Amino acid sequence: MDEEKSAAKIVFLVFLLSFFCGCEHKAGLNTLTFSGMGTVLSIIYTGERNEALENAVKQDAEAVEADLSYYRESSFVSILNREAHEKEVTVPEHVCRLIEKSLEYGKMSGGAFDITYKSTGELWENNQNKIPDEKTIEEKQRFVGSDKLSVNCAENKIKFAGLGVKIDLGGIAKGYAIDRAGAIMKKYGVENFIVNYGGDMLFCGNKEGKPWSIGIKNPDKPSEILEKLELGTSGCKGVATSGDYERFFVIEGETFSHIMNPKTGKPVKNARSVTVIGDDATLADAAATAVSVALHEKEAVEKIMEKFRVKIYTLSGEDSVLKKW
Questions:
Q1: Between 294 and which of 75, 97, 112, 151 could a Cys-Cys bridge form, CB atoms 3.0 to 4.6 Å apart?
Q2: Closest residue by Cα to residue 174 from 54, 92, 280, 291
Q3: Are residues 277 and 215 in the same domain?
């Protein structure tokens, strides 16, 4: 979450809504923009402006970040990474349930989504002057896998298999925060809205009876729209993007994606951009990460699409042709 140091994903996935610029000046349409999770967070909603609603959304985003950030020493993720190899650690129910759901998504994705990837992923973050050698990667890989966690949400206790196991919820936490914001919006009686946290979004209801629309842009040619999508006029849809075009790091002169393959312990290659549309933002966020990992395995992507019941649009990095799965 805190690792999202850029205006993540907004360049690739943009609104094609006529009100987006200057929308706060239109009657009955309100916009709140604030900072959090290392990126730009915003909500757009119809009806009368409601400061209590807006404060509730902001406070909840701050609470989610405080609980789930890998980079905050006081977060429950950090506490688990420090202590759970020695003993069971008690966490709030919502944290336990999200970790439990993450493990479920891991199984659904065939291991392409795995929150224990950080056990090896930290090698690349902490050793940015030298590419990790194969032996070191292999040693760390033994700490990767859903079987390395024991999760008991009846008592909200979590235990790690041993020292060296690390988790990071960055591949699902933003979608989770978005869905929580959506629940707050509905609690306050708002049915037509968009939650946009760094380019991952939840669209609910409609805009004056018309469907919300988004456009997928070519990351290499920002003025070029590869696909326009309409998301319906009722219910909610989560939209998430993942890609290597704007978040990467360089080691020994070589550029690597920030997205890690939990099966190899190495950054993924040629996962230029992935857009996923699903029933909620939590699921879409996890699926987008999984597809980025499995992108060059056709059967694996098709299985993710089937299991998660999502629509998938990808750019492989080899060309600028958008593939619809």
A1: 112
A2: 280
A3: yes
pLDDT of residue 250: 83
- 208 found inside a domain: yes
Structure tokens at 196: 């946009």
Alpha helix (H) residue ranges in 118-187: 118-126, 134-141, 173-187
| Residue 3 CB neighbour total at 10 angstroms | 17
| Burial category of 225 from C-beta neighbours within 10 Å (exposed 0-12, middle 13-18, buried 19 and up) | middle
Number of domains making up the chain: 2
CA 302, CA 220: separation in Å to the nearest integer? 26
Longest dimension (CA), the chain: 61
Helix axes 281-294, 173-187, angle to 10 degrees: 160
> pTM of this prediction?
0.90
Helix (H, G, I), strand (E, B) or coil at 92: coil
